[in-house]
Amino acid sequence: MIFRQLFDDATWTYTYLIGDPVSKEAVLIDPVNTHIDRYLVLLNEYGFKLKYSLETHVHADHITASGLLRQKLGAHTAVSSLCGAETADIQISDGQIFELGESEQIRVIATPGHTPGSISFLWRDRVMTGDSLFIGGCGRTDFQGGSAADLYDSITLRLFTLSDDTLVYPGHDYQGRWVSNIIQEKTTNPRLSGKSKEEFIEIMNNLNLPKPKLIDEAVPANRYCGLDENERQDAVERRDKGQSTVQGTRTPDLVSAAKQHITEIDIEQARQLIANGKVVVIDVREESEYAGGHIDDAVFLPRGVLEFKIGSVSELADKTKPVLLYCRSGNRSALAAKTLQDLGYTSVLSMAGGYEAWSKVD
Ligand SMILES: [Fe+2]
Question: What residues does 300 pair with on adjacent strands?
Fold first, then answer.
């Protein structure tokens, strides 16, 4: 088997290549968009066919190459189902296995804490821990829905229960270190060694770290597999139609699942509510769609950044106030409605048919 650890010196990010020289199937874990050409050359050198592009989480410090790798090589993009990246081909869940060739298996270990959707990948004697566990440290928990308590449990109950000699390959290292192992982290990691959960939370709550430079750009982009604005439109179209770019796979039908849990209203009902001033209207489409026309006074809050930006939308401060969401056709708004409900909003409506139907009746 081929195992390569690649480094992005702009963001101190590690990317991992695992390839099977027999079947020629390979995966990349946490690829960075600026290195796409390097990956293509490397895969070509080995004669590998990239089967999966796996993400440990939605990154805040760099943009993934997964969307580009899907476009150029047909690789399946995969990210945790808890990351809100619905254009990914595969929505990963805990315990899932990714297979390479006849017998190689990469197992998913859910390690929430840095973000709710953070996962680690266990392959043979090594675990790729993303930003959950670093060498002598761990990922921060102060944004992107992070939780120090969850991270402590993930590390101590899931990673530290792997065998002591399991090699730890982190998502970053800022001091030029490449690899560690479980026993070393158990015994020397200053945030965890001998620390109670309360002590760990205290440490994490007092790191006072600056906001990552790229966060406003990277998080929304990564939720669309790192694709740019135009490419996102295509991806959204495909997703709305329930299609995937990769032949033989289908994006799980998150939309119909969401629609079972939310309330949809038709255009006429929406018009009445808006006319009576009874609802906050939210447009969850992309910037270019909003710019091309929108409902008067609609607040612009794209689905891709909804959880991320919601705290700065004053109209949504009161979770009991009725909210009406719309998108192009009523699918993204259904997903967004489900998200708002999960966040505690008690009166959420999605406009069936979306702006397309609204414009026709106009
Ligand atoms: Fe991260």
Answer: 283
Q: Report how far ligand 1's centroid is from the alpha carbon of 208 (Å).
A: 16
Q: What is the spatial distance between Cα 26 and Cα 189, in angstroms, rounded to a whole number?
A: 32
Q: Specify the range with the lowest mean pLDDT, choosing from 88-92, 105-109, 162-166.
A: 88-92
Ligand 1 centroid to residue 139 C-alpha, Å:
7
- For residue 310, which amino acid is it? I
Q: Give distance in angstroms: CA of 148 to centre of ligand 1.
A: 14
**DSSP conformational letter for 25:** E
Q: Whole-model pTM?
A: 0.71
Predicted local confidence at residue 70, as pLDDT? 93
Report d(CA 4, CA 126) in Å as an integer. 12
Section 260-272 average pLDDT: 93
Helices (H), the chain: 36-46, 66-73, 148-153, 182-188, 197-205, 215-222, 229-240, 254-259, 267-275, 287-291, 306-309, 332-342, 354-361
Please say whether the beta carbons of 49 and 24 come within 8 A: yes
How many angstroms separate the alpha carbon of residue 126 from the centre of ligand 1? 20
